[in-house]
């Protein structure tokens, strides 16, 4: 192992690529900020209990993938594998739900950790932007979140993603379905581990990707046929609201999610250009989670979009993001006097909000011009002793290659008018 190697399943974000990640985070956050969601940040780790109770003790995330550890002080902690349980915990701790302003709408952006088998699009450290609307049962809220995610992806230029929609029922109808599914699964030819899963978490078996399992599931009972009237009506209204907003979706009665807290509306955003790790985002309603972690009844809904996979999806579609130039003006001083003068000019430009950079480390003209080219700057200002003696600097347009002298005292205003 080389000292310079990031841990397995992780990677570094390095310029210029890293700018894409910032742009993706920004594009996902923009519609949320515009829709009443406030920014929340929670710690990178929590008491392991929160995830065991919240995400679910029978999920892969908790049983196999959690980075759990004991601190020197004896606390049992885990790096967060997802954001929903933490955000709800934080909202309860700050009593946000008691301020008389439900739903509490929050958005977040950060790193999450799952000890998964790494492959393209599946990492042990990854990044999500998420949104949670806590404390209201209203189909319009579910619809709002789906519409905002759609808007975020479209604003980035993504086109070939699909929205899969399902309802997982509630505490009235799901247990009835669960039993029917269990009875069905027990009659199949399944290996021991899968049978055990059928006992603990039968809905997860529907998500088994192996063809021999899938083949046997063709006639499996569907939750759709077991939904109670209240869940049916709720789901129908969500569908109608999304349809009215012009957002296309597909009903996927077999959609289950890898976390146990979901009730009623569940959805996933998938991109077909990504191979097996096709989910670029997902979410749904979690009406029972607050009670599961010891809080009051607070019906809620949310989603998280994967930043890493969204970047991969953009690449798969060949979308080039319009990223702001990181440097507009590059200064190349030739000699000590020019260094002092141009350094001052660069500082002035930066104060005006113009992205400017400087040739550091006393390179020769050739090396400095190479740096100017690499910086992507639209203009370069070059000055040597002779220029300064004449009271000018050379302004070079890097696109046309034209170069002309501009007065030292005029150069900042000149660049401001060109770039402003
Ligand atoms: P999730 O489906 O587990 O849901 O994760 C959401 C998204 O995070 C996935 O669709 C995927 O894009 C990305 N993601 C998950 N695991 C990985 C990984 N190992 N490598 C790369 N990307 C990954 C949740 O986390 C829920 N908390 C979403 C939610 C919010 N539900 C309600 N509110």
Describe the protein's architecture and organization.
With about 425 residues, this protein is of the alpha+beta class. The chain folds into two domains: about 15-175 and about 225-315, Bira Bifunctional Protein, Domain 2 (BirA Bifunctional Protein, domain 2, 2-Layer Sandwich); about 330-420, Anticodon-binding domain (Rossmann fold, 3-Layer(aba) Sandwich). The chain is built from 16 helices and 16 strands. It has helices at about 20-35, 50-55, 60-65, 85-95, 140-155, 175-185, 190-200, 200-205, 210-215, 230-245, 290, 305-315, 335-350, 365-375, 385-390, 410-420, and strands spanning about 40, 45, 70, 75-80, 105-115, 125-135, 160-165, 250, 265-270, 280-285, 300-305, 330-335, 355-360, 380-385, 390-395, 405. A hairpin with a 7-residue loop joins strand 9 (about 265-270) and strand 10. The longest helix has 18 residues, at about 140-155. It is elongated. The protein starts with 17 loop residues before the first helix and ends with a helix. The mean pLDDT is about 95. It binds histidyl-adenosine monophosphate. Histidyl-adenosine monophosphate (HAM) binds near residues 82 and 284.
Quick recap of the structure?
This protein folds into two domains: 17-173 and 227-317, Bira Bifunctional Protein, Domain 2 (BirA Bifunctional Protein, domain 2), CATH 3.30.930.10; 329-419, Rossmann fold, CATH 3.40.50.
